[in-house]
Structures are given as structure tokens and as C-alpha cells.
Amino acid sequence: MYICPIVDLYYNKMESKTPSREKEIYKVTVVGSVVNFLLLVFKFVAGIAGHSAAMLADAVHSLSDFVTDIIVIIFVRISNKPEDKDHDYGHGKYETLATAIIGILLLCVGFGILWNGASSIYDFFHGEQLGEPGMLALIAALVSIVLKEILYQYTVIKGRKLNSQAVIANAWHHRSDALSSIGTAVGIGGAILLGDKWRVLDPIAAVVVSIFIMKVAIQLLIPCVDELLEKSLPDEVEHEIEQAALSFPGVSQPHHLRTRRIGNQYAIELHVRMDGKISLEEAHRTATGIERKLKEMFGEGTHVGIHVEPIK
């Protein structure tokens, strides 16, 4: 999918400098940022020329999309840095932080749309005449719906394939913009086709859309908060870890299992018991085998610590 020659130029520059996952995240994010930039310019022009406050609000929403693209580019680059003296577990949580920032921005944008829509509804029912938007604003809304839905599908597929929370969060931001544009299109279309008495459809639709936007924001923020507060991995994942350890001969009683997420990676600490009469070399070989198996299951970037104790 090629939106602009700038994407190919940037992608080629990244090819020799970054790992494959980071390179793909950059590519999908740059595609989104180019589309967002073109859309926000078009929407601002259409909102001003078409005398549509709703379209101007939609343009601000697209601007927030563009800003989140920049956030993803910056934070994903940081999150892929290897561990160093100050970050023994790497920099994976920077990606989680980026996801949280996107969620907060979505929440703020949704609340802003809700506030503006509710204010317009209040003013309308207290006798204020709302302005009539032009056809250019309606065209801009329809174009935005189509482009943003295509961008959402492209981005969410890439995000799931790359196992990137930040990219998936950004995809939902694209979807929220498409939903916002649907509300804008309904409102503008109703105001144009149905006359003065129906111009209130614009802010009503905006309020409904804002609720969906804030719901998506909360759904994105909850797992980010869980990770930042060191919530354990799901029970079924921890059960898989214990079964993997028990699959090695001589290993028993897995305990003191501690797990958490670090960005798109897992951190696992596990105590196991072995026969105290075996050699240190054999115990070490078994512990290394468990570590390798867990990395095969959950990815090479998994942080694994195995503590061996003698059977009592």
C-alpha cells in the first residue's frame, strides 16, 4: 500500500538501520501520518470554506491522529533499544507509555467533542440559530470516512501481526476519526437536506460519536495501567509456563512464579525443584533448556529467570 513517495523514501532509509519489526512499525505509521496530514489540511479548508463548525472539529480530530503518529514513531524507536546500564529489562515499556498517551489523547478528544456538541444542542434549544454548512464540508466528511476506514483496516492488521500495542492503539484512533466523520456527515447532510429545524442533528451525532470514542480510549488505557502496575499475565499463560517446566525430566514443584509484560514482551521468574544429588552442570543444562523452551513459546525477547532448588 503506497500513499506517497515519501513513504518509500523513508522506508528505504530505515531498511539498513533498524530491525524488521521496528521497520514495519515505522512503515505503517508513516503511511498513516501522510494520510492524516493530507486529511487534516483538506478538512480545515473544507470547514472554513464550507462554514462548518462540525468539520473544523473533525479537522482537529485528524490533527490529534497526526500527533499520535509522531508519538508512535518516537516511542517505538526508543522501545526497541536493547537493555543498557539503566534499563536491565530493555525499553519495552516506552511502547506501553506511547499507547497510554494515545489513549489519553483519545479520551480528551472524545470529551472535547462531547462538550462542544452538548453546548451546541443547548444553544439551539434556547433559540440560537445554527449555521448552515456547505457541500464541500459534506464531501470532506465522506472522503474522510472512506480513507480512515481503509487506514484502520491496514493498521490494525499490521499491529496484530507485529504484536504492537501502540500500532493497534493508533489503528483505533483511525477508526475513531472515521466514526467522528460519520457523525459529521450525518449532521452536515441533515442540515443541508432537511432545513433549519434539523441543523441540531450535527451536534447530536457528535455527542453519540464522542461516547464511542471515549469507550475505545478507556479500553486502550486499562491494559496499559495494568502493565505499568506490574499486573501478572493471565492464568492460562502462567499455567502454560508451569507445564513447560514440568515437561523436562527431573523437574517438579514449580513455584514462586512471577510474570509481567514489558511492552510486547514477557518477563518470567520461576523456581523449580530437582534432585539435589545431580551435578551442577546437569541442573544448569535443564534450567537452560526450560529457558530456551519458554523463549520458543513467547518470543526470543522474553526475559526468563530460573531458580533451581533441591527436592526436600
Automatic annotation (TrEMBL):
The entry's localization annotation reads: Membrane
Ranges for domain Cation efflux protein cytoplasmic: 233-310
Q: Does the keyword Transmembrane helix apply?
A: yes
Task: Read off the lineage from the record.
Answer: Bacteria, Pseudomonadati, Bacteroidota, Bacteroidia, Bacteroidales
The protein here is known as: Cation diffusion facilitator family transporter
Give the superkingdom in one word: Bacteria
What InterPro entries does the entry give?
Cation_efflux (IPR002524), Cation_efflux_CTD (IPR027470), Cation_efflux_CTD_sf (IPR036837), Cation_efflux_TM (IPR058533), Cation_efflux_TMD_sf (IPR027469), CDF_Transporter (IPR050291)
The main location is: membrane
